[in-house]
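thread from #wetlab-drylab

HS: before we spend reagent money on co-crystallization trials with adenosine-5'-diphosphate, can we at least see a predicted complex? here's what I'd submit
DV: go for it
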Amino acid sequence: MSKRPVKQVDLSSEFSLINALIIKSGLTGIVIAGPRFKRKKLTSLDLLLLHKNQSHSKSHLLDEIDFTGLVSQPAVFQKIAEEGVFGGETDVITISGPQKLYYSVFPVMVFSTLRLIALVFDQEREIKEEDRYLISSSLKLISKQLELKDEADDLKIDKIRYTRLFESAPEAIAMLDKNNQILDVNPEFEQLFLYKKAAILGKKLDELIAPANLIPEAMQLTKINWEGGRVAVETQRMRHDGKLIDVSVLGVPFVQGNGHLCIYGIYRDITARKNSEKQELRRLAFIEFISRLSSDLINMDVREIDQTISSGLETVARVYSAERAYLMELSDAGDLIKITHEWTADPRFSHRERQPDIYLSDLPEYFRKLLAGQMLYFHRVDIGNEEDTKALGFFFDLLDIESMVNIPLCVDNRFSNFIAFDTFSRPVFWDDQALNSFKLTGQILVNALERKHRELAFQDALHKAEASDKLKSAFLAGISHEVRTPMNHILGFIEVMDDPYLGQSEKDEYLAIMKSSGNHLLRLIDDVIELALIDSGQVIVNNTPCDICRVLESLLVEFEGLKSELNRNSVKLILTIPGECRQMIIKTDEIRLRQILWNLLSNAIKFTPEGEVGFGLSLQGFNRIEFYVSDTGIGIDETDLPVIFERFRKVENRVSRKFGGAGLGLSISQGLASLFGNSIKVLSEMGTGSVFSFSVPYSLYSADSGKKLKINGFAHKFYWEERSILMVEDDPVNMKFLTVLLLNTGANLLYASNGKEALELLEENKVDLVLIDMKMPVMDGYEATREIKRKYPRLPVIAQTAYAIKSDEMECLAAGCDDYIAKPIDKNKLYSKIQELLFPLKS
Ligand code: ADP
């Protein structure tokens, strides 16, 4: 028997029916055959049912017929077909095939999709009309049954095919029911949108993956599908993690096997393509922008350049998703980096507001590389991995840096500036195209800056040349006068030296005068040369380690010796060195520093007939040392103050100037002080005395770097492990900034977001210093400070306010604050203010 799928069809009820029929009509047997399934052409038949009437005496005859042989011979059925049997309902023919049939065979045909044939055997008589009808009906039933089965199989196969296709499709597919709810999604969908299928079945697709602003569009597309239309669009959808992706969407309505309509949403991730399109667009936009920018910068008035630079920084930063962009330059003294131009996406994260300059000594290795021309590009994750990036960690925390690129720029093959881009909210990875664009922008901007500097320098030089022309005449007039006076002395006395009546003692006296005049001339020439060297920029600061107290003490000894020479024995010399400055070794130009102090001291003694001359030093903030020379001498009239630094300008009615003094000492000193980045200031009152002061940069020299405390590789000079500082600040960004700064000192930190909280914290904690913001909700800094000072009068309070306005400062001090710092907070200033209050210096 054939093993066709038909066997799986349950034909038991049909079998019983046929059985009953055969018995009832006394037929010998019946064979039912049908075409092979799935064949379009009828070439052979499957034997579906073979039935023998067991009660019939002749039934054994059926056994002799090879039905399988019979039904597999198309010729037999071909004949049946040719004779039109298939066309009719029923018919009777006698067939003769390879078998000799002894029985009448009545094929009963059913014309339907499955053309079945029943061969009814009977030897003796014709089949009754009624039996034929019954057989025909049974065949129809069987046929129907098979047909149904066939359809069910088709469906099953379709379903398997569909499932395979669905599961393995390279596109993300979602199937929606009539409520737009998800019926099914394929693995690609799960992968693309990062959802687990089980978690999203039954959810509304549009609400799930369309970003809020695109939900109406998504719903419109779905609507078109329900109306029978197809949609194909490129849009954006959102993944489970919130990330937007570019997708192509194909929406098609589809009739399911059960006749229900559903929708297929087919999504393809086109992010990569869109990105490259965007990149190309960005490249074109950038090229257009940069060519416009460079031509603008070349042609514009130099006074407008700064504004254009800032907007140029903004455009480039936005194109490449940077959140801050800035230009920096090295200070004249070469010790710090200053931000000159900045753009930031959020002003709260402005570097310029938080840390406008950074000392090279804070990040020596980093700046060494930059100054050597190396581009530096870091992400937060890189920090601390390599030895020399550890110190950077502090600044990444302090300034909220996630990604940062810093590019050195050159003008005429000389380092001139840095351009830097960074982000504070998320890491961004810039490709070579972005980095090249940054560099190109930087180069164009510094070229413009260079043009500005040159033009301004040229204008300045022009003014100076005009002024110096006048100055030169005055200078020549001055110098000729100053040379003439001692020269006259010398020549005059040479004349009288020839006098034969001149006694030895007189000769000695005249020789002494000539010698003094000669020395005077020599000093004058030295001073003039010195001034010329300063003017022409040939005097440079040469920093070496210098024991500053030793220098001052040696000056004291020297001037104690010179006092009598200057006829100032009654003048008292007083040197004051504060405790914290003793044994301080700094890096500075000792020779130039000494020269300024020498000039000031010699003037002080010269113009102080009796009384005191004091000198000394003090720390000025964190990074400068101030020197002063004071006297209780004749003083300078207010109207004369502006001119004393001018060349050859001396105040009239001066005391006798035995001690050199062509009126160049202060000019030279002022020139030297400017090399230290500062000018000499003077306070004076006629008859009371004068105070001259100036400052030099303070960079602590330590041969033993182990003396410095290192946290995270960052060397710093303050360690307040044992101290508790209460920070009162309502702005979280600012609070974080302060936290990073102060954590670096090892201090124990307490936080309060308003004055009321601060007072509560003070009740329960031992606090050594309060750093308080003045503008806060609930209880502001003024009220809180008054209350703090009432309860804890000795607890130091430092106020911080937004603007450096004198009246603010007064108000803070009136409220009881011990000190005051204006925002933007300079970290070094803050450190030294806290240091001063935590450890008051006794001078
Ligand atoms: P010089 O001392 O050679 O005259 P300086 O340039 O040193 O020239 O000083 C210029 C002038 O400033 C002096 O001539 C003097 O009139 C005034 N001056 C400088 N130092 C003092 C001082 N300590 N007290 C009063 N006058 C001073």
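DV: The mean pLDDT is 79.
HS: ok that's useful, forwarding to the group
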